[in-house]
Design a protein that fits this description.
eleven-stranded antiparallel β-sheet, membrane, single chain, alpha+beta, transmembrane helix, about 575 residues, transmembrane, disordered N terminus, four-stranded mixed β-sheet
């Protein structure tokens, strides 16, 4: 087997082209042969197949729950394996094509033998490719060097493609319950309500509603008693019967109506009437006593409550007048404040409810007008509308307000009377006198005296009463959806452009290299073979190939042995 000339004086280190003995061409084999481009074609197809496989997996999992991925190995791992195989496959071809271009380069004209090392180093990795770009010649091998430098970007970019994100997924559930009420129909024991000689003034309030009133007036935190196992949502809207409170400061107008007896040095008693028609009384005795709080209530219906007058004034249920003062050290009434409040029947339209734990919010909570266009009626027996009540009740018929359909709403007659009786009771109609005259019945005065925001407390009372209806015995359930967190796949497709562009460049480089070298038999297909270099003889600035067939070179290499001296 031929090698380099051993006499250094016979071959100075000058530029050298490849030269063959005589005009014979190099032996070429089948295009798909291992001695030609068969292996490189196979690895290029394998690289393209791996990239297509990655693309298929990405399209398959894009926007889907990660739970739908059935294989035991994660999609990230599969993509990583395919990407690694893709890089290994196309880099095999890139290395072979760069090795082939050095023979093309030396075939065209004489070059320094140092270029051989530059081509070989460029085909081995990024460092050699960078050195080739800086110091090497500008040939088609430059494309291979650029691909070699760019291929380390593929792995980190692919790792950025697949992202996992938490999404809210909802599904109907019987455990997601939001209450609403169209009828106030809490019952009392028959022994208290069905006696033949029981007067309507003795009708008690149901204990749940009484507790709600006290809860609101004392400013105790009010929470929705909905049912939700975690996070829930309710689509659409629900219209529910409820209550509302309206208050206004009427100090000046009320004091102008006051008539007083006595003077500051003796017992002075003043009677006055608020704009809502509520009578209030105050008394003060210099250095002895003074009124700190007085609340009175009045039914808006005229005269005694009867079946004929029960609907008068509705939707108003009760009017309140509250007088407060801050007596000084001599028991003179200072900082007098008088407030009118009204409790009314109301209806609310709840939309877009969402709950998380013990907290619930609504996209909107709008009050529905129950004004004169929707009057209240009394029925002494069975009601055949949507309320389906067999007891006497006051009600409104089904109506519309713009694009909102308002269902029939009602209050059982005995429950309405129980409410009014309670507001007339000593629990609510209270007086607090500080000084020598002790207060024997303070009722709710301790919750409202001083600088307490009266309007806020009455609105809390109305809210608590409304919640009692929505979640009490009169409640009807609205079933919603339970919201659960589920992990979804989100793809950053821009990162996938990096491996696609590099693979496309590798394919173009492969096509140019294979078909370019196939056109001429004057260039051997030796690629990066070290045996081909050993088969060349350098003499007089020429590289002489002693064999025209790469297969023959390999056979000789298998037969011969060599030892480094």
């Amino acid at each position: 087997m031929a090698g380099y000339e051993r006499n250094p004086r016979s071959h100075p280190y000058d530029p050298a082209p490849i030269s063959e003995e005589g005009p014979a061409d190099y032996v070429r084999h089948s295009f798909l042969s291992r001695s030609e481009w068969g292996l490189e074609i196979l690895t290029s197809i394998l690289a393209l197949g791996c990239l297509v496989g990655v693309a298929y997996i990405l399209f398959y999992i894009d926007g889907k729950p990660i739970a739908e991925w059935r294989p035991w190995i994660s999609p990230n791992a599969v993509v990583s394996i395919l990407t690694t195989a893709c890089i290994a496959a196309f880099m095999h071809g890139v290395s072979a094509f760069m090795g082939q271009h050095k023979w093309v380069y030396f075939r065209k004209k004489s070059h320094r033998l140092a270029r051989l090392e530059q081509f070989d180093e460029a085909s081995r990795g990024p460092y050699g490719s960078l050195s080739f770009l800086v110091k090497g010649p500008r040939t088609l091998a430059t494309i291979g060097a650029l691909i070699t430098l760019a291929q380390p970007l593929i792995t980190p970019c692919v790792q950025q493609i697949i992202q996992l994100e938490q999404r809210d997924i909802s599904h109907p559930a019987q455990t997601a319950i939001l209450g609403y009420a169209r009828l106030y129909n809490d019952t009392m024991p028959k022994s208290l309500t069905r006696l033949d000689n029981s007067a309507i003034e003795t009708q008690p309030i149901d204990p749940r509603m009484q507790a709600s009133i006290i809860q609101g007036l004392f400013g105790i935190d009010i929470t929705e008693t909905f049912s939700c196992p975690g996070a829930c949502s309710w689509e659409g809207s629900s219209i529910s019967l409820g209550f509302k409170a309206e208050c206004s400061n009427v100090t000046q107008a009320t004091l102008q109506s006051a008539t007083c007896e006595g003077d500051e040095d003796s017992l002075q008693t003043c009677n006055m009437t608020t704009p809502n028609g509520i009578g209030l009384t105050s008394e003060a005795w210099f250095t002895d006593r003074a009124t700190a709080f007085y609340m009175n209530a009045s039914n808006p219906s005229v005269g005694k409550q009867t079946l004929d007058t029960v609907t008068q004034g509705l939707p108003e249920i009760m009017r309140f007048g509250i007088l407060r003062s801050t007596p000084d050290d001599n028991f003179r009434m200072r900082e007098i404040n008088i407030t009118d409040c009204t409790l009314l029947i109301a209806a609310y339209n709840y939309t877009g409810a969402r709950a998380n734990g013990s907290d619930i919010t609504f996209a909107s909570k709008k009050e529905i007008d129950l004004g004169p266009d929707n009057p209240w009626h009394y029925a002494g027996g069975s009601v055949t509308n949507d309320l389906q009540s067999v007891d006497p009740l006051v009600f409104t018929n089904k109506s519309t307000n713009g694009d909102v359909t308002i269902p029939a709403l009602g209050i059982k007659y005995l429950n309405l009377m129980g409410l009014r009786n309670f507001f007339h009771s000593p629990t609510m109609v209270t007086r607090w006198i500080v000084g020598n005259l002790g207060t024997t019945n303070s009722g709710v005065s301790s919750a409202l005296v001083g600088e307490v925001d009266i309007e806020d407390r009455f609105k809390k009372m109305a809210t608590a009463m409304t919640n009692n209806l929505r979640y009490g015995p009169s409640s009807k359930p609205t079933y919603g959806k339970v919201i659960e967190k589920e992990t979804y796949v989100k793809l950053n497709w821009w990162y996938f452009l990096v491996p696609v562009v590099i693979e496309a460049a590798a394919i173009v480089f492969a096509i140019i290299s294979m078909f370019g070298s196939r056109r001429s038999r004057h260039v051997p297909v030796w690629k990066y073979s070290i045996l081909a270099v050993l088969a060349c003889q350098y003499e007089n600035g020429k590289l002489y190939s002693m064999s025209k067939d790469i297969k023959q070179i390999r056979k000789e290499a298998k037969r011969n042995k060599a030892e480094l001296q």
